[in-house]
Amino acid sequence: MVGYIITNILELEMTYEQDEKRSETRKRILEAAKDVFAEKGFAGARVDEIARKAYVNKAALYYHIGDKKALYAEAIHNVIGTASERLAKDIGGARTPQDKIKTYLRTLATTFDENPQLPRMMMREMASGGQNIPEVFFQDLFSIIRVLSGIIEEGKSQGVFIDTPPLLVHFMAIGATVIYKIFAPILLAAQQVPDNLKGIDEDVSGKIANEIENLILNAIRK
Question: Domain 76-222 belongs to what architecture?
Fold first, then answer.
């Protein structure tokens, strides 16, 4: 009986270690994929390069994720899907429509700071006409838009927001964030950067997020 229990415990420990190893390998592959897709775009990215960057062979990459299309879809879902889940979780702690808008914007800002490859991936995808956007992206995006739509409707019913298309608000937030994340480092690296630009944050989840929040709230406030 004791031997049986010990065997079960050892098997559980081995299973846990294997799961942890698989999870770590998957994370490493997705991070490498985001780097390569951001640098080369979908068309220019090569599975071999992603595998080398993730320190795995191609067979392991295909086993954990799949082919390049599956890898691209999973890399995007890993970012946007996580943001959607975080927003759904955090929005419950906000009381007013204004606080919920701030939570929504803060979630986006945090997502971009945690995934610095995202702005370049988005710019490359827009330049290609969105021909490689996977279906899961739209599912995750529309999930976020539904939450935002509910916030705006709540604000309208309380008389604090004007009637504003949720998609337009989302584009305002995404546009400001993406452009800032791409061009702020370039401006800061310029030799003749004006004094009033020196010392600005490269991250958007701090002071910059507050400024974007104010701009958007002022735009939709009744």
Answer: Orthogonal Bundle (1.10)
